[in-house]
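Quiz preparation item.
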C-alpha cells in the first residue's frame, strides 16, 4: 500500500496546519504566499514592506524600530525556519532571495568597539544602539546559520555559505564562506564558470 507522503511532501497534520496558515496569511498579510506560525513581528506591520510571494517558515522573528518602514523585502522571497531580522534603520532584501534556517540579519549593534568605544563595564543593554543600513541584492542564496552584520551590502547573485559571518560587503556573483566570510569563488560571465579566488 502506498503512503500519502509519496504524493505530498506534507503529512496530514502539516497539510491541515498549512491550510490554517494560508487563511491567516490571506487575512493579515495580503500578497504573501504563506506565513507560518509562530511569527514574531515587533514594531508592527506598518514597519515592513514586502513584495508578492513572501514565504516564512516557523519561528521567524522581525524586530523593527516601530516608527517608520525599516524592513523592505522584494518579490518571491522565501525564508525557512527561525530567520531573525533586526531592522532599526534599514534592511533591504531584493527579489528571489532564498534563506535557509537559523539566519541572523541585522543593521544594529549594541555599542561601538572602534571610535568612541563603549567600555566593557557598561552592560550591553545600556550601550547606545548603533545602526548602519544592510542590503541584500537579488537572486541571493543564504545558507544555514549565516550571520549578516550591520553595514554589509551583498551583491546580486551571491551565495552565502552555511555558518558564514559576513562582516564586509560582498561583490555581485560571488560565493563566500567562513568566519569572517571571504570570497571563495566568483562567476566569470565570459567563460560561464565559477572561478576559484586565490
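Solution:
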Amino acid at each position: 500500500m502506498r503512503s500519502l507522503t509519496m504524493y505530498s511532501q506534507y503529512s496530514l497534520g502539516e497539510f491541515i496546519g498549512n491550510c490554517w496558515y494560508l487563511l491567516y496569511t490571506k487575512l493579515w498579510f495580503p500578497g504573501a504566499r504563506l506565513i507560518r506560525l509562530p511569527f514574531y513581528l515587533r514594531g508592527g506591520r506598518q514597519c515592513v514592506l514586502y513584495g508578492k510571494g513572501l514565504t516564512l517558515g516557523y519561528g521567524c522573528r522581525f524586530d523593527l524600530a516601530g516608527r517608520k518602514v525599516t524592513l523592505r523585502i522584494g518579490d518571491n522571497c522565501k525564508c525557512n525556519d527561525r530567520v531573525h531580522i533586526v531592522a532599526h534603520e534599514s534592511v533591504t532584501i531584493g527579489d528571489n532571495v532564498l534563506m535557509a534556517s537559523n539566519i541572523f540579519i541585522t543593521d544594529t549593534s549594541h555599542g561601538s568597539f572602534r571610535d568612541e568605544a563603549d567600555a566593557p563595564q557598561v552592560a550591553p543593554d545600556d550601550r547606545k544602539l548603533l545602526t548602519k543600513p544592510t542590503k541584500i541584492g537579488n537572486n541571493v542564496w543564504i545558507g544555514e546559520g549565516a550571520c549578516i552584520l550591520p553595514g554589509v551590502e551583498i551583491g546580486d547573485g551571491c551565495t552565502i555559505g552555511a555558518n558564514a559571518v559576513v562582516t564586509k560587503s560582498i561583490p555581485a556573483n560571488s560565493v563566500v564562506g567562513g568566519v569572517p566570510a571571504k570570497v571563495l569563488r566568483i562567476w566569470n560571465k565570459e567563460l560561464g564558470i565559477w572561478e576559484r579566488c586565490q
